[in-house]
Amino acid sequence: MKRPLQAIAPFLLLTLGLTITVLAQTNPQQPARQQLEAYRSRMLQEKLFIHTDRSFYVAGELIWFKINYVDGTFHRPLSLSKVAYLEVLDKDNRPVLQTKVALAEGAGNGSLFLPTTLTSGHYLLRGYTNWMKNASPDYFFEKSLTIVNSFRKLELPILKDTLAYDVQFFPEGGNLVQNLSSTVAFKAVGGAGKGVNLQGILLDQANDTVARFKPLRFGMGRFTFTPTEGKQYRAVLTDSRGRTFTRPLPAVRAQGYTMQVEEIDTDQLRVTVRSAASASSPVLLLVHTRLAAIQADQQTLRDNVASFTISKKSLGEGISHLTVFDASRKPVCERLYFKRPEQRLSLDAKIMSGTLSTREKAVVEITTQDEAGKPAPTDLSVAVYQLDSLSSTEPGNILTYLLLTSDLRGAIESPDYYFTASGPEVSEAADNLMLTQGWRRFQWETVLQPDRQQEEYVAEANGHFIRGKITNGTTGRPVPGISSYLSVPGKHILLYASRSDDNGRIQFEMKEFFGPKDLVAHLNPRDSLLRLELQNPFLERYSATRLPVFDFPTTLKEPLLARSVPMQVQNAYYRENLVRYHYPRVDSIPFYGNADEKYRLDDYTRFPVMEEIFREYVPGVMARKRRNGYTISVLDVPHKDFMSGEPLVLLDGVPVFDMDKVMAIDPRKVQKLDVMTRHYIVGPLVFDGIISFTTYKGDLAGYRPDAKALLADYEGLQIPRDFYAPRYDTPQQSTSRLPDLRTLLHWTPSLKTNAQGKAQLTFYTSDQAGRFRFVINGISADGRAGSQQGTFDVSSVIK
Fold this sequence. Notes:
Elements: H1 10-16, H2 30-42, E1 46-52, E2 56-58, E3 62-71, E4 83-89, E5 95-102, E6 107-113, E7 121-128, E8 141-148, E9 166-171, E10 176-177, E11 182-189, E12 199-204, E13 209-213, E14 220-225, E15 233-238, E16 244-248, E17 252-253, E18 257-263, E19 268-275, E20 282-289, E21 292-300, E22 305-311, E23 318-325, E24 331-339, E25 346-351, E26 356-357, E27 361-369, E28 378-386, H3 398-403, H4 417-420, H5 425-436, H6 444-448, E29 464-472, E30 483-488, E31 494-499, E32 505-510, E33 516-523, E34 530-534, H7 557-573, H8 575-578, E35 597-600, H9 610-617, E36 621-626, E37 629-636, E38 641-642, E39 648-651, E40 654-655, H10 659-663, E41 670-682, E42 685-695, E43 710-715, H11 731-734, E44 744-752, E45 758-764, E46 770-780, E47 785-795
């Protein structure tokens, strides 16, 4: 029986352009493979890569960033989520900066100003989408930044000389099983977060030496031994100063499975599975690269051993998972394998302007090609900045992130090494990394369970979601089925409505919602016993990443001064140019579109009472005063009769539920009046018409919302800031006495090469002489990623 294609989420097929292979279930190994494919279909994996202009900043500077948004399997640009969340976290995971960024066609960009209230230290930049909140925060993009506040005295911690090494041991496949040979990988990290060179001896409980070991690179290495029944093992490690300490090995199990992966030749891998049980039971090996299943093979244990062969050519580039299941389809062993990419984007950048001097135009020709040398149109981000002893040697590489860093837990030391280094030890070093930092983005229990669970967070396919909750003010319990409203007061009428679900949750979809806004969130006053609260849109769960202790050597004081002075000059002389924004085009038509009846009150006789307005020239509205107050009805034009229910009445977009207060509005402060003379649907709610008043200033003209309404200052999507750099096209500009001490010469978040893979970049040097670096990151439509960096010199001698 074949799985119907209708079972696969159609929006994923449209987004990724994939063909999901429908597999027959005649073979026993196929159900697990099908379940993995089905999981990938419904649980789209998203990835963000964030290119920042630099990694070291001084307070008062701007962080410029570009977001690449791709699917997590094939790394093709996505267009599903429309919002990315960016945060800068301190060492205690407290957010010091937060912003929301619009995504379109697989990309977004923006900037963050670093205030002078920040303390000096290491910070973590992280980014994610609303859909990514369903996964572990370890899945989010993370990048370490260093920020130094030159206006404050550096308060550096006292570094103690301790044996605070983090040493961990990882049996291949997951477990040590008695009497089964196992490869054990280890990783030793020092206080600075870098690998350390420790010599080790493995001892049993009788202090007999079982194995000796030392790291190959970055504090990682391996050894092989066979744990014996009834024995316990410990490792004695010695650092470069001769100091020793002891660490235990993971517990040895009496029963279980082990696996070993070895290269047969340049084209094949052998996976050997061993079991402590004597039964001849079947085991299944499932291989996938980022959830794209490659191989499912079943073998029967013979003499407690089963062997599988994998063709390296069948593996996807980057990290693949090799999982062993027992006869009951329970995962019992797992490890990772890294395949160095062959399909990659080739980036070539040449400075065509020769030797450069200060205040001179630089021309850079950029070419993008695939691995076969064919043109590859690509969307690039480019940063050009001055090199100094403060600059990081690894500014960020999109290729290494997508194929390596994003699929491993924790910080990776020198990820470029695994892509660019040569020699026989590179493969072993990469395998050590796979053994020590392996993890997966899902739980097998979730994949194999038959019932699909509803995810808490949905993809923001049209705009930002503002979420909240309605509870009973007395008991605190969630209340379902309650209508709520969210409005943005102003001349641009925006109103959103929601009805609480079984858990009291409400959700407003804010399309084209940019910049800081005043929000009014409230319920109908008749629901006065209920409480409405808005939730923090940023996730308050964090990864296990720990920033290293901040240490700023005194030798860097001069370079810091050389960086701080240009920042102050820029803010003093170019402040107006640094706050230019590119305002997105937003539809100014009210949420209800073009009104059925429009009245500009200045075109009519000005009456001091609202009732006279309705009676004299608004035939679509009827107001009647009764014993318990006013009632207002709107004419149902198609049926030529007044509707029986209450209309939605708005004042500058804020609902007014008390009709007496509506009639008390001073018409002389109202500029225009719109009427919708038909039933109108707002979200899940239906109203018998709409009456919308707009004041001259859009400030509610003194009207105060209900006392229980929630008033909030809310930051919408970030309004992009224009990157400014002076030009020196004329002699007058070149000889200007206005100082130009820029250390960041150029930043562009989107430079696209044409069909021939060509693009030209131009910028002007500043008054700063010295060595400069350019860093380029890009990704093509078919998912080829590439990065390139280089240096050039700027002379202070004017030609």
